[in-house]
């Protein structure tokens, strides 16, 4: 018992390092946006799960359609909020489009020569 008390008292006596939470407005807005996206996704997952339980317990055809529609809405939401709004994906898409345009222009220049 004395050993446990000594270990606990030693841990409590050491000061924890202070953490600096100085965030810029952009970082705060980024975290808020991510939190809202995650909350909306959690809500759609919960609603989808609820209709899945209803469908399994009742074997009701309309609940199956509602479950399928909610899953489609959820997939579209994930695609839009996590796919199209992602900066890395947008940069890759723009660079791919610019490469296509360059190749297309080169082919047209060669055909016209």
Taken from the alpha-carbon principal axes, the silhouette is flat
Poorly predicted parts: none
Strand content: under 5%
Distance between the termini: 92 Å
Instruction: Output the radius of gyration.
Output: 27 Å
Largest sheet, in brief, is: none
Mean pLDDT: 76
Structural class, judged by helices and strands? Answer: mainly alpha
Beta strand count: 0
Helix percentage range: over 70%
* Helix segment tally: 4
Order of helices and strands: HHHH
Explained architecture:
This protein has four helices and no strands. It has 113 residues and is mainly α. Helix 2 packs antiparallel against helix 3 (61-84). The longest helix is centred in the middle third of the chain and has 34 residues, at 25-58. The mean pLDDT is 76.
Question: Quick summary of this structure?
Answer:
By secondary structure, this protein is mainly alpha-helical.
């Amino acid at each position: 018992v004395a050993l446990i008390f000594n270990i606990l008292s030693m841990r409590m006596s050491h000061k924890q390092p202070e953490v600096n939470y100085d965030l810029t407005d952009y970082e705060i807005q980024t975290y808020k946006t991510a939190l809202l996206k995650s909350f909306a996704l959690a809500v759609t997952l919960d609603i989808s799960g609820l209709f899945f339980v209803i469908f399994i317990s009742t074997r009701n055809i309309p609940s199956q359609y509602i479950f399928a529609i909610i899953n489609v809405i959820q997939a579209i939401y994930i695609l839009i909020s996590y796919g199209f709004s992602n900066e890395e994906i947008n940069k890759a898409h723009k660079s791919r489009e610019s490469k296509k345009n360059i190749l297309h222009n080169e082919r047209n220049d060669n055909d016209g020569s």
